[in-house]
Amino acid sequence: MNKDLDHREQFNADSIEQFYIKKVGEDQFNLMIIYKKMEVNHESDLLSFGHKRIAEITDILDYMHQFYGITPKKIEDEYNYDKKTNFIPKQKRNFFKLFDQDIEDIRTKGVFTLSGEDYLVEKTQQIEWDNGMVSYRFLIHEDQSLFYHPMINNRLLFLESKALKANIDGFDRYVDSLNEQPKVLSFEGQNYYLLEVNKGEISMDGKHLHEELLQTIYESEDEKCVLRCSQMEDKIRVFKGTMMQEKQINLILPQLDVDF
Q1: Conformational region of residue 206, where left means phi above 0, alpha means psi within -120 to 50, and beta covers everything else
Q2: Rounded distance between C-alpha atoms, residue 165 and residue 187, angstroms
Q3: Residue 70 · residue 18 · CB < 8 Å
Q4: What is the value of pTM for the model shown?
Q5: Secondary structure of residue 82 in the 3-state scheme
């Protein structure tokens, strides 16, 4: 790249046609820009980077296309990064603690004791929110899950199971997005108030499921229960959770090396 060029003058918003990623070496990529000058398309490299940053740069590229209102076209020598295939979830702590255990020690095929009941974790979902927080959903028997959700000023832990949308007063089953739902719902004789709205991407045991999960959490008046609403594309599910405290988890066993 010619460092003498002043890109603020060379590339204005009206001249930008598209951005793309080009592989130029074994572990070297360039972020490219296609721009129009004198009615002719030109291209130039904006940034060089290695494979470790390709996921980050791909997100930036998508953001720039969205920001400038660009619908990208297929480029012959474009490097296409498949986020689903190459997805790497944020890593939990890689060692298991025998004492002072916490949520990080609960693993798939592991066992935890909650309020005197033993639960086997069949699968683990991990949700990485846009705000940088990470939630865990531990799927256990009888369609139950233990959901751990950190917030900026609080942490929620609740045992949840599916709730019928038809039984929730105020829940509109005909709207396309959870963002269109009211801020107050009523379920089993209690009002639930909108507590938080979040968006992020979800994986299951290290495998990418979807890059955009929308979630809303409603808290009951007595602060003992929650309604968690989850949306991926046009599928909306609702779960009713009973609040728990982390101190009620009094034993966690590591992964069991057996088939179930």
Answers
A1: left
A2: 10
A3: yes
A4: 0.66
A5: coil
Give the C-alpha separation, 208 to 87, whole Å: 6
Is a pLDDT exceeding 90 seen at residue 149? yes
Strands 117-120 and 123-129: unpaired
Structure tokens at 115: 């309020």
pLDDT, tens only, 38-76: 888 888 898 899 888 888 888 888 888 988 899 988 888
Tokens 């979800």 correspond to 202
Which H or E element spans position 10? helix 7-10
Find out whether 158 and 226 touch, Cβ atoms under 8 Å: yes
Q: How many helices (H) and strands (E) does the chain have?
A: 3, 15
CB of 229 within 8 A of CB of 178?
Answer: yes
